Structures
1.
Amino acid sequence: TNAGRTSLQEREALTTSPLNHKIISFMKKKSSNLCLAIDYTTTEQILQMVEKAGPFVVAIKVHSDIITDFSESFTQQLVQLANNLEFIIFDDRKFADTGNTTKLQLTGPFKIAEWADVVTTHAVQGVDSIVPVFREFINNPAYRLSGVLLIAQLSTKGSLTNIHEYTKKAVQIADENRDIVSGFITQTRISEFSDILNWTPGVNLDAKNDSTGQQWRGVEQAIEIQQNDIVIVGRGVTSSKEPIQQLKRYRQTAWESLTKEENE
Ligand code: 5FU
């Protein structure tokens, strides 16, 4: 059941993050708590999928460093589609280095901070290498970047984030810096602060795992039992022969799970 879940309305009132306000408004408008992970490797494939999927999702997630023909024209088109179709752009870069290196990576050849609304960071490098760096970009209107998602738990088998107090320490970093940490990447709800959104990868309605460490579970488990807010779906949609049909199926299932209590 969804007992104890904070409603979207309550969250909207709680959060001071402009990014989360934008996300929640998209969620309500589109009846969607779905983020599509497009792990295609050419800009043409990606943009074609974004055009079709954009209306049904709150976020499009990419890995900028797997795109073989990455260019500024690609990010310009992506930004235009995001503005028109109302989704946020998420680069799953998983920063994990010194603050200075992270800064260079955010402004380097991919210019991530200029086109991504949100990026992921690991917590392993510690708070001082994370918070001041991202704060500088997020508070600077010259950059599009407006929030960061802290990886508290990975979906992968044997993930070291499950060791000892790792997740607890990561949550502490987020809880104390909620002006920039707008969400977690997590498997289960782990913070008492309801203004931080819980984004969860490792969701597939038809398969349990791949052969390289990924673990999937269904939407009900991810949303109703583990109390996440936004479902990140990749191959369940992108490897399907009928991706948009699948996308609609995921959107509806995830939204029903999220709003179950509210509608009862
Ligand atoms: F942080 C994480 C994680 O713990 N698991 C993930 O799967 C990120 N991911 C990403 O979500 C991963 O890099 C893929 O881009 C996406 C999941 O796609 P899938 O095709 O559903 O496995």
Note: Residues 37, 39, 92, 151, 154-156, 185, 201-202, 204, 214, 232-236 surround 5-fluoro-uridine-5'-monophosphate (CB under 6 Å).
2.
Amino acid sequence: MDWGLKNRLARIIKPHSDRGVMLAVDHGYFLGPTERLEVPRKTIQPLLPYADSLMLTRGVLRTSVDERYPIPVVLRVSGGASIIGKDLSNEKITTSVKEAIRLNATALALSIFVGAPYEHDSLVNLGKLVDEGEEYGIPVLAVTAVGKELEKRDARYLALSCRIAAEFGAHLVKTYYCENFEKIVNSCPVPVIIAGGPKLSTELDALQLTYDALQAGAAGVDMGRNIWQSDYPVPMIKAVRALVHQRVTVKEAHEIFTKNKEIEKTPKPTPITNPSYPIKAKTKSTKSKKTAK
Ligand code: 5RP
């Protein structure tokens, strides 16, 4: 691995903790205006200070993220199928590496669909993307997608997908948490991060899932819905961040969530907007008109 690629990876998986918090907001690429991500800028902006990196498409990046904000971008470059189409696994590379460089992307992301009708194409896409990415020192995140078959989220299937992704050269793999998660991590020679999946009933459930994944060896999260579909997204990402980097317990993380939620709920004092203030004081010139001449 060359210096540039290692440097980019270190912006995602932080060296101080060997872990990372990636905020996933790429859902629209096949789901359209996902609940609470209808106006991407509104969802993303308050969460930016608490994410190490941001995973999204070029469309949302260009339109909804301030280009002056220094957050590493993990650019989704695969797509081509929608939730109402025939087959979610029918993806191609939709954004070039040249464009990713123009957008100053730190990493490239694509989905692989092991066991699905377009398994072969998605794996060949991955191999080619790794070749191209490595030419420019840009790492590739492989997402082990399950399409609509959520029941595929078991250790046997996900270990197979993650291992294949690593064999094809992915530098980082994203998968779902499941029982026996250690099996996935131990048989995958590159760091594994977890997606949150569909919104769980409570924030505590999502924090527990995150904690369990980290305990089993996950290198962090690439989480979306369980953060921004919460009624309190900022307290939620702060709690997830504490689990990832400060290695707090679930109880401590939940306390962070609750404390920050209470702060958000506390009504802020309304600023006094007396129209007669501030009074523009009539300033007397210290210099007399004569001397001023
Ligand atoms: C979809 C993705 C999403 O980024 C991924 O599912 C993470 O988001 P969530 O935590 O909402 O599951 O890659 O293919």
Note: The radius of gyration is 23 Å.
